[in-house]
Write a structure and sequence with these properties.
Distance between the termini: 49 Å
Helix content: 40-55%
Bound molecules: zinc ion
Radius of gyration: 27 Å
Number of strands: 18
Largest sheet: 5 strands, parallel
Amino acid sequence: MARILITSAIPYINGIKHLGNLIGSQLPADLYARYQRGRGNEVMFLCATDEHGTPAELAAAKAGKPVAEYCADMYAVQADIAKRFGLSFDHFGRSSSEQNKRLTQHFAGKLDDAGLIREVSEKQVYSNADGRFLPDRYIEGTCPNCGYERARGDQCENCTKQLDPTDLINPRSAISGSTDLEVRETKHLYLRQSAMKDQLDAWIDSKTDWPILTTSIAKKWLHDGDGLQDRGITRDLDWGVPVKKGEQDWPGMEGKVFYVWFDAPIEYIACAKEWADANGKSDADWERWWRTDKGAEDVRYVQFMGKDNVPFHTLSFPATILGSGEPWKMVDHLKSFNYLNYDGGQFSTSQGRGVFMDQALEILPADYWRWWLLSHAPESSDSEFTWENFQQSVNKDLADVLGNFVSRITKFCRSKFGETVPEGGALGAREQTLIEDLTKRIRAYEGHMEAMEVRKSAQELRAIWVAGNEYLQAAAPWSTFKEDPDQAAVQVRLGLNLIRLYAVLSAPFIPDTSAKMLSAMNTLDTRWPDDVSAALDALPAGHSFTVPDVLFTKVTDEQREDWQSRFSGTRA
Ligand SMILES: [Zn+2]
């Protein structure tokens, strides 16, 4: 039995995510976790909310809540939606947890011991009215280049010129609008990533099985221009992990917090301790996933993320854990995704354009979305959600192919043999051909799933469903029943067993429907079909079943048009 550690990039706390976010990491990570569990492997699947930083503070202020309360509320909302989408995390943690606080401070202390932290004195804009330093993008003013009046301190949105806050004409706080700003001196900690360049380079070079897209992004950051740069890991904010050196105070760093990019990936590890603490487990139980000196040397660690997160996962986070000098588990494989676009444009959280996770579940069950998103995952390039394509995919793949197969065979059996697997007859040449075809296809499906080729896996699964339909069409038990009821019986018996087989194979994609199919077949047998012939004998003659309700209803043209206009922008 293999042991597989899986993490999904952690979603930011300020709001409900759209379907583009979902297919960019959490959903494919869930597919892989469910598949590996289905194969009998031991899986630890972790995700969390990313809660620190200025955007959370501002969102809380907008909602009129203290930031800790806002984050607790939004965490509950995100956890509930994740559950309703069937995301099977072993633990869904929070980067604001005590466990992450302590671990982040621990890493900072170890990095400092290793000489990898330096203090830097900087000038930064302070807002007297807000009583705080302002991050560059929370300073607004007139662009010196184009005259746009709402340029941000880091960049002008209008002419895209990169700016310094001091370049702005008539600068003001984006938080309060106050112009009572001054430049103050402040001290920050920098992680000396430049000192770790060779170590990171050698580590990336050892990853010969990574996609070129991933290694080329990492190499670019390592070598372009002046090479890998040191990065600030602290901020003058209230909301975050207080800067400490392990358990000790850090002189000169009072009132400062670690920058969100430093503590967020550490939550991957802290989340496992949260899991242990929440389930009455010991430290040894989570450390066997994360410490190579405590049992994790045989763990395979896979990360799922959008392409914009690749630099953090190939360089910044590895710099933190390699730099600590401690034997933490490093990532073995990164699976990254391109972007999903929405109906001729982009998903937009700020404009409410596209379908958000809560809205999706208001109009259709999770499996409809899971199937479409996974079968159209933006792997080799960006992909696009259109309502026409969604309607076609649901109606053809789910309703016509899988749903119709299940309905047809169970109803036919009930009308001729009753709700019991019929006995009699023997497998003939047609059945043997089907078994050979299915065996080939299931082995291909396993290969694609192991390789995390999401679209190819979906295509193969669909082909497996189609093979059953084609068999049923050709065998036509409704015709053979008249002359040779024994032959009809063996065909129907095979068909009913195919339902169980399909439920097992399809569970990673459409878990709720898979559970319905197993329940209708009155079985708890979810054994993987290593031997397809034996798997098609799992439900013996005499085994009782029930005809399930319709598994998938078709999307009508009226629904499609209604949804298309409803989600075109500005969510209610
Ligand atoms: Zn401009």
